[in-house]
Each structure stands twice: as structure tokens, then as C-alpha cells.
Amino acid sequence: DLPDDYISNRGGLIYTEAYTQNMAKVRLSPYCSPISADTLSGMPPMLIFIGGVETLRSSIERFVEKASAEGVDLEVHLKEGQAHDYALIKEIAGPKLVAEADQIIAKFVAQVRNRYLGLSN
């Protein structure tokens, strides 16, 4: 466990067991864990935020490596010292980082809309 993340390894296991009802078929499904997919090729553009101290960091980085190697359009933001979902929860990261993340998300969505749908603001 990383000391500054609110999700511990044990907590993550409890969440996973509850989400999957502890069924291996569900736990290994790419719908539950996208890194389990045979391929990520053809996936839509992805915006990924990684907290530097989050318990899931190494798993997220493996996913990013796999997606990147398979040609997925990725935008990745790593924020050292931050926990899981820092970009979404002001009580974790503070209002300034959440506001910055909101701007990053808005810019990403606008770029994807323009690039893939021909829609611009």
C-alpha cells in the first residue's frame, strides 16, 4: 500500500470482490478490467489521470503502455503526490487541481469532437 492513497490494496480487493461478486469470469472480463482485453486496438481516444501515490498506479501504467503500443490515442496526466481520482475530488486534491483537471477534460473533449466528428465550438 502507498501511504497517501485512500484506496489500500486490501480496500481495492474488497471493492473488486463486491463489483465482480468474486466470480473469476467477471473479474477477468475486459469490461471489468480493460487490460485483460486481447487487444486495445480500435479503442477511442483516452484521457487518463494518474495519481503519483495511488495504489493502482502500476496497473494504470501497464494499461497505458499496452494501449500506446497498440496505437490508441492517449493523453496521460501524472500528478506526483496525488491519490486515486485526485482530478475529480476536491477534498483529495484541492479545488485548484480539480479546476485544472476540469479544463484538461474540457479541452480533450473539444479536441476529440473536432477531430472525429468535425464539431468545434
Automatic annotation (TrEMBL):
<dbReference type="GO" id="GO:0016787">
    <property type="term" value="F:hydrolase activity"/>
</dbReference>
<dbReference type="InterPro" id="IPR029058">
    <property type="entry name" value="AB_hydrolase_fold"/>
</dbReference>
<feature type="domain" description="Alpha/beta hydrolase fold-3">
    <location>
        <begin position="10"/>
        <end position="87"/>
    </location>
</feature>
<dbReference type="Pfam" id="PF07859">
    <property type="entry name" value="Abhydrolase_3"/>
</dbReference>
<protein>
    <recommendedName>
        <fullName>Alpha/beta hydrolase fold-3 domain-containing protein</fullName>
    </recommendedName>
</protein>
<dbReference type="InterPro" id="IPR013094">
    <property type="entry name" value="AB_hydrolase_3"/>
</dbReference>
